[in-house]
Structure formats: C-alpha cells, structure tokens
Amino acid sequence: MPLPFLHFRTLYHRISHSNTPLSVRKLMAAAVPISPSNTRLGWIGTGVMGQSMCAHLIRAGYTLTVFNRTPSKAQPLLDIGANLAASPHDVASQSDVVFTIVGYPSDVRSVLLDPNSGALAGLKSGGILVDMTTSDPSLAVEISAAASSKNCHSIDAPVSGGDRGAKNGTLAIFAGGDESIVKKLEPLFTPLGKVNYMGSSGKGQYAKLANQITIASTMVGLIEGMIYAHKAGLDVGLYLDAISTGAAGTKSLDLYGKRILKRDFAAGFYVNHFVKDLGICLKECEKLGIALPGLALAQQLYVSLKAHGEGDLGTQALILVLERLNNVSLPPLV
Questions:
Q1: Are 70 and 100 spatial neighbours (Cβ–Cβ below 8 Å)?
Q2: What CATH architecture does domain 207-326 belong to?
Q3: Residue pLDDT, tens place only, 182-239
Q4: Residues 6 or more apart from 6 whose CB is under 8 A from it?
Q5: What is the structure's pLDDT at 168?
Q6: What Å distances lie between residue 49 and 89, 93, 108, 135, 192, CA to CA?
Q7: Whose CA is closest to 148, among 181, 173, 174, 117?
Q8: What is the pLDDT of residue 2?
Q9: Is residue 73 among the annotated active site residues?
Q10: What is the pLDDT of residue 166?
C-alpha cells in the first residue's frame, strides 16, 4: 500500500517493531506528517493561557484529552469536544503528543516525571512531550533525557504574548530540542502562533527568560512614564496615544496601557508567575556570572505586589506599586 494511505499508528507500529536501525526508524517516523486524522493530542493545564490554546487545536479538528487539577476549569473545553482524563498519566496513555502549560517548575516535574501519575510514564514509544511552561532550562534538559530513554521526544516551547496572544493565536513560541521534531510539530504550533527554533533542549527556556527580562524593564519604564506624565499635568491617555507611534511604542504599551488606565488588572499573566519567572532569571544570571540591575529592580517591585496580596493580578498591576511609592492615583480612563 502506498505510504500516504497507511494509517499513522499502523505505520509507526511497523516501523518501531522492525529490525530497521533506530536512527532510520526515527527519520521514518518523523516523515509521517501530523494531521487530525492520525494524531491524538493531550493537554495538561487549562488555565488562562492553556484554555485558549487548547481550544484552537480542537477547532482545527484534533481529538484532545485534557487534565486540570481543578476539573471545572476544563469544562469549557469539554463543551466543545475535549475528553477529560483523571491524571497526566491517563492523558499520555491516550495521546501521541502531550502539551503542558502549568504554573511552576515543581508542577512541570510532577505532571511529567512522576513515576506513577506523570505523563512520561504513560507515553508510548515515539510519543512527544511539549512543555510550554516557563521553567528551568536544566529541567528541560532533564526531561529530554528521560524521554529519550523511553524512545520518546521532549520539546521545551514556552510562549510569550499573554492572554490576548493565546486567544488570537498570535503567540511567540520559543522551541528547544530536536529540530526535526519541532518541524514535525509545526501543524500543531501554527494555530497557536509563530514557532521560533532556538536550539537544543533548554534553549527555548533560555529564550523565554531573556524575553521576560526585556518585558520586566519595559514594563517598569512604561509605568514610570505614566506616573511622570500624570504628575506633570498631562492627560495620560493622550500621552500614551502620542508615544505609541514613536520610539517608545512597544507591545507592552499596546497590551497594557489602556488596561492600566481602565484599572483593569485582570490577569493576562499573573504577578505570581512573573515573580517566579524573574526569580529563575536571577538564578540563571548567577550561574552565568552576570549582573542585570534592571532585572533585579523589577523583581523587587513585583515582589512588593505579591507582598501586598496582589499576586493574582496581572503584571500591569505594577502601577499600584508606583502609585503607593509616589502617593498618587492615576485618574481612570472614562
């Protein structure tokens, strides 16, 4: 039977159980294109980001099995056709590719590497793990090695773009791992945004951490400019419009400027998670022997938000710290 008409799992079974050398088997498996008709997907973590991302794949025609620690958060996905699993292990046992986007590195380790309930323990030979959480580069390398020992693959693919990027399918995806596997996964990345191959395992995480360092200082500059404009007697809304097409125009301004003036602090990206990310950045800076004072200042300011019990707000809530520091309050946008 010609190759295009062989069912994916039948073909992979023939490849993986033949006497063909492992390197050739991997190339043959990678050559089978991913499509809704031959690839079952799993998704672990259906929060602010994961829910929209997962929905894009369901609407693209893929069969998805999902898991969330709080099952009610997965209900909107079940309503559009997803299946609910009882554990990450159960997700993986029903999937060819498993995505994760959870909170912290400890969560990543638990949902992927736990020997009893983790996804890798339930993944069949040839399966692929795609971790989209911002996490430790060293953990990405560890997961990749563990997956390889089971004749599976792991890609670290953290994302940037916040809740709007997730909803609009315009995320920046930073991928680390085997380049041929990243290319194989492009049909799954395309509904989510633009994938950027950054290098070997862990390099996706390094790219995302550099991205967070850039965002942190940009957000501080945006907020300080708004405070200064207000104290100088400017209409802050007019000021933001004026700078948006100049050299100060940024994605952070586009995403958060008007939200701040509307006092909309709903999380597109949680302060708690940003504090986690910047903490990982500082730890990696120590390993690399570099000092980034802007990063250190931003971390202190965001830790202040968390200390005030505002960790579940969005990162744009940084305005609250500067308002307290300067004893001012920006007038809300009417």
A1: no
A2: Orthogonal Bundle (1.10)
A3: 999 999 999 999 999 999 999 999 999 999 999 999 999 999 999 999 999 999 999 9
A4: none
A5: 97
A6: 22, 24, 15, 15, 11
A7: 181
A8: 39
A9: no
A10: 96
Q: Tell me, which fold does domain 33-199 have in CATH?
A: Rossmann fold (3.40.50)
Strands 153-156 and 40-44: unpaired
Tokens 């007697």 -> residue:
233
Question: Which tokens is 251 given?
Answer: 């994605």
Buried b (16+ CB within 10 A) or exposed e, 85-109: bebbbbbbbbbbbbbbbbbbbebbb
Residues contacting 60, CB < 8 A, separation 6+: 36, 191
> In the 3-class helix/strand/coil scheme, how is the chain assigned residue by residue?
CCHHHCCHHHHHHHHHCCCCCHHHHHHHHHHCCCCCCCCEEEEECCCHHHHHHHHHHHHCCCEEEEECCCHHHHHHHHHCCCEECCCHHHHHHCCCEEEECCCCHHHHHHHHHCCCCCHHHHCCCCCEEEECCCCCHHHHHHHHHHHHHCCCEEEECCEECHHHHHHHCCEEEEEECCHHHHHHCHHHHCCCEEEEEEECCCHHHHHHHHHHHHHHHHHHHHHHHHHHHHHCCCCHHHHHHHHCCCCCCCHHHHHHHHHHHCCCCCCCCEHHHHHHHHHHHHHHHHHHCCCCHHHHHHHHHHHHHHHCCCCCCEHHHHHHHHHHHHCCCCCCCC
Low-confidence stretches of the chain (pLDDT beneath 50)? 1-13, 15-18
| pTM (2 d.p.) | 0.88
For the chain, give every residue range classified as CATH 1.10.1040.10. Answer: 207-326
Q: Where in the chain is the domain with CATH 3.40.50.720?
A: 33-199
Of 26, 167, 184, 208, which is the active-site residue? Answer: 208
Token code pair at residue 310: 């505002």
